[in-house]
Give the backbone structure.
Amino acid sequence: MNFKKHVITLSAVAGALLLIYILSFVFSGESRAKRGSISALADARALSNARYIEIRGGDGSEFTIENQNDSWVVKQNGKSYPAKNGRVEDLISALGKKAEYPVRSSSASNLEAFGLGDGRREVIIKDETRTIAELFFGAADATGKEIYIRSGQSGAIRSGDDVFSVYINGTAKDWYNLALFPDEKTKPAIFAVQRLTVVPPAPETGAREAPYTIIRDGDGWKFEGGGAVKKTEADSTLRYIFDAQAEDFLSEPGTDAFSEGGITIELGNGMRIIFSLGQKVDGRRGLKISNQEYIYLISDWAVGRIWRTKKELSE
């Protein structure tokens, strides 16, 4: 009897060991497969030398983002506009970050099934001499959380978390830096402003208000010629001007003389910044800023925030 129990016990132990061995083999295989699917879509070190990013939409649209003097610009239709540097760097970081990209198909014969045929989106990244990455982005999977991806250097179709649609959908405008003062390093500080002269825009009806000037008065402001100014209103107006965003760039100003209103900001270092307002078209106006090559389009609401009336600033 004792011998029989001993055999049963040994058999049970042997069975348990065999089961552990089989499970360890299975899970080890899964772990190896998982490790094999972890990679980056492009080499992070090579991406650090990126100079050109071409984005092609499924509708045939395309534009290029180019690094010029360590700042990115959007190039489209022969024109260059400042780009959102942070957005560009975020895309490059996402492409160089290691993540799970399991292979879903090794065949290039069924690209349409993954949205990688007509209508696919493309991102091509180059340095000064070569192509770093050529990537095709297709449809979302059934969950809507992952997207199908194919490298131009491989026939394999992979899937991964869809952190890319926010970058590859849309138009060139989504990449524009539409801040009126796009360079944070050269944007004036409020305390540096010593004098602000305003030529109000002509109203749709009635007479145009007379120009006015406010000047520094200690820690506050006063009207040139006499009269108290609300410090909080003057400071908030300048803050809005320096932080304001346009709605778009105006590529063809036509015959607009940009004489519908003006602002002159004078800084303590002698620098002058001049705003020239254009005619109203479809509820928006063109805006020229001295020493800038771009012409902005701003809304009527923004005009009202920038061109404050004398009454609004008066104590």
Observations:
- Residues 146 and 161 are 4 Å apart (CA to CA).
- Residues 17-35 have pLDDT under 50 and may be disordered.
- The longest helix spans residues 2-37.
